[in-house]
Every structure is written in C-alpha cells, then in structure tokens.
Amino acid sequence: MTTLILRDLVKEFGTTRVVHGVSLDVTPGEFIVLVGPSGCGKSTTLRMIAGLEEVTAGTIEIGGRVVNDLEPKDRDIAMVFQNYAIYPHLTVRQNIGFGLYTARLPRAEKARRIEEAAAVLGMTAYLERKPAALSGGQRQRVAIGRAMVRDPAVFLFDEPLSNLDAQLRTQMRLEIKKLHARLANTIVYVTHDQVEAMTLADRIVIMKDGRIQQVGSPAEVYHAPANTFVATFIGAPAMNLLAGTAGGGRVRLDIGAEIAVDTTAEGPVRLGIRPEDLRPAAPGAAPLRGRVSVAEPLGPGTLLHVDLGGAEVIATGPGRGAPEPGQEVGLLADPAALHLFDAATGAAIR
C-alpha cells in the first residue's frame, strides 16, 4: 500500500501559481527528500501535505484516503519545523508528550511512549529540563520526539537542520538517518541543502519553479541527471558544462577542442563533465588545455580552476604535488563519465 500519493497538485496565491501539477507516490517506510533552490515550491508542497496550506487543485492521499479537506490533526501526520516550535515553559517530558494531550490513550501508555521516544533520542537524562537548558541539537531532538510519540503514517520535516551550525548539522543528519533505519517510518523531508538530500534520501525529488525536474535515488540523480539544472544543482562543485556541436561520435567544443563521445547525436549540445572525472595531465597529452587560475587544497585532493581560453572548468588534482596557479595543464576526461545535454532544452541526451 502506498503511504502518500500526490496527484496533479497545484497551489496558487492569487494569480501567481507556485506549484504546477506535482505528482508523486511514496511507499511505506520510504525516506523522500524534496530539494531545490529557494522559491522552488518544496516547502509549499510540504505545507499542503500537512494541511497548513489549502490545495488549489489536485489531490493528496494519505494511507488510502483523500485528505484535502481534513484538518492537520486528522491527517495522521506529524511535522518537525525549522524553528523547533517547542514550548519554553514546559519540560522536555511535557514537550514530547504535548502531541498526546488530546489523544484518547491510558495515562500509562502516554508515559510509555514518552519514555520510549526519549530513550531512542538519547534524551532520557534531560526529561525534567526546560528548553533553555538544552543545546540546539537537543531542542531539535525534543521536536522530533514530539512527532514520534504520535506514531503517524507520515513524518514531515521542514528544513529541520537549517538553524544549526555545520558540525551539529552533520551530527543530526546521522541521527535522523539512524532513527529512520530503526523506526522505518515514512518521511518527507524538505531542504535546500543537497548534501542533506544525498545523504538522507532513499529517493530525491528535485524541484525548480514549482515543477519536479527529476525523481530518483541519490546515485541516479548524480550519475544520470535528467537535465542541466539537475546536473548543476546536484554535486559540489557543480558539473562543468561546455557548449559545442555533436556529430560523427565527437563533440567539437566552442573553445576549439574536440572530444570523442559515444553518441549518435547531431547538432548543438552541452558537454557535461563532473570535476572528479576531469584530471590534470601533460598539456600535449590531453584534448583540453588551459592554465590554472585558482587551486583549492582540500587535503585528499585539490580543486583546480582551469581557464581554457573562453571557458573555465573545475578539475580534481592530487592532494600533494597538484599543479599551481599560473601553470599550464592538460585535462583528461573519463569517456564513460561524459554527459550530453540538448543545447536548446537542457534535456539529457546520454
């Protein structure tokens, strides 16, 4: 049985349409991440699922029933917000149990659920503390615990880590991943951070301008992007894109170089190469040649910004002994890792 089904979901604010016919099937226990730049419609989509925004058109089905006209409390969902949304005057125990306040459960069952959620989240020792005595990460755990005790069909996370510092964000990402593996609940998670999306998701839904651009596993959207938007949005640094013309199994780039590509495509294209698939070589031994403008040492490797004379690309060099700024280099690309996109539409050709 599918936990969540979105069919042709549309949202308009006045005359402005911000979500354009989004459709998605989410299976039980799946971790789905909606990702995209600010204003792409991901949070609005999540808020429609939660019942916090009215649906202009389309349907939302949770657990086999259409919930468009149901109040949030009746949708069998629980939401974790970006700003924690916990009550400062209540203890951790009271905050976690707040969602059970109106539940028709025996008092012992409510207490059991609170204790169990606290144990899973490592918060048992903090149950009698107030939020002011907690760190940002602990407060977010309290918010997650309040969602957990309701045992909903779907968990909704709205950029829950965006207010945390980088180190704590990494730690909380790992904790959310472990929590999902342990509980196997269905999760729909919104973020603008592609690292969060890649590390957490079973499937990623990439959105732009209120439309879904691609749905797939992290490996699929990274190694087989559907278009140039996905290619440049997923991956850090972004995929290099070079304009050229395909024909005869080759691409003649606008900068003058030619690269052999296994394709029957003809006409204007954009050649995509991820930085890790572009390596420095002797200038005379590679089809691409240029001069290093910037070198960014990262420890195990070095990011090389190379001016090709009309275009700049990023390549990956060794951690030690990498070419230095001002040095001329050749660049070799792994033929199996090349991508081609239609120059007019941006759609993937191979």
Give your account of this protein's structure.
It is a single chain. The chain has 350 residues and is of the alpha+beta class. It has 8 helices and 20 strands. It has helices at residues 42-50, 92-97, 107-120, 136-148, 166-183, 194-200, 218-223, 228-233, and strands at 4-13, 16-26, 31-35, 57-62, 65-66, 77-80, 154-158, 186-191, 203-208, 211-216, 240-247, 250-253, 258-260, 267-273, 278-281, 288-297, 301-307, 312-318, 328-333, 339-342. The two termini are 34 Å apart.
Question: What is the gist of this entry?
Answer:
The protein is α+β, with helices and mostly antiparallel strands and 350 residues long. It has helices at 42-50, 92-97, 107-120, 136-148, 166-183, 194-200, 218-223, 228-233, and strands at residues 4-13, 16-26, 31-35, 57-62, 65-66, 77-80, 154-158, 186-191, 203-208, 211-216, 240-247, 250-253, 258-260, 267-273, 278-281, 288-297, 301-307, 312-318, 328-333, 339-342.
List the helices and strands and how they pair.
Elements: E1 4-13, E2 16-26, E3 31-35, H1 42-50, E4 57-62, E5 65-66, E6 77-80, H2 92-97, H3 107-120, H4 136-148, E7 154-158, H5 166-183, E8 186-191, H6 194-200, E9 203-208, E10 211-216, H7 218-223, H8 228-233, E11 240-247, E12 250-253, E13 258-260, E14 267-273, E15 278-281, E16 288-297, E17 301-307, E18 312-318, E19 328-333, E20 339-342
Parallel strand pairs: 3-8, 3-9, 6-7, 7-8
Antiparallel strand pairs: 1-2, 1-4, 4-5, 9-10, 11-12, 11-14, 12-13, 14-20, 15-19, 16-17, 16-19, 17-18
